[in-house]
Structures are given as C-alpha cells and as structure tokens.
Design brief:
- The protein is mainly alpha-helical.
- It is built from 6 helices and no strands.
- It is about 70% helix and about 0% strand.
- The longest helix has 15 residues.
C-alpha cells in the first residue's frame, strides 16, 4: 500500500529513488522505484539518529532468512 501511495503522493521522489534516466518512461521509473523500495528497503539519512533508526528498513531482503527457515521446516516435516 505504501508503494501505491508514494506513486500518487510523491512520484518525483520515487523516480529519484529508482535512479531512472531521462529516456526511461515515467510509468516504468515509478514501477522500478516502488519495486526497489519493497525489495531492498530504504536507508534514511535525516541527520537525527533516532528517526533514522525508526524509518530505515530492509525490505523483503531482510526477511529472507525467516522465509528460508519456514520453507526448510515445511520441507523437513513433509
């Protein structure tokens, strides 16, 4: 839901996060930026350490170890 909201509220930030070039279509840059944020997360650099810890996240990559553990447990019990 956050990716969809970011596309509508702050599309210019999503495009910058995607690192898209000028010749990339806008819809593709928005899709790439949303997908990158979901997959790898974002590192916040506001200058306030407490806020940076709260809003910095790892995305789906940070959950991969847990997912592999669940898959291994299900395979072992199967």
């Amino acid at each position: 839901m956050g990716g969809v909201l970011a596309v509508f509220v702050a599309p210019e930030r999503v495009i910058v996060f995607a690192g898209a070039s000028d010749d990339t279509p806008t819809w593709l840059a928005l899709l790439k930026g949303s997908w990158l944020a979901l997959a790898s997360g974002d590192v916040s650099k506001t200058g306030y350490p407490a806020i940076d810890v709260l809003v910095t996240c790892g995305g789906m990559d940070s959950m991969l170890n847990t997912i592999w553990l669940v898959i291994a447990a299900l395979a072992w019990t199967g």
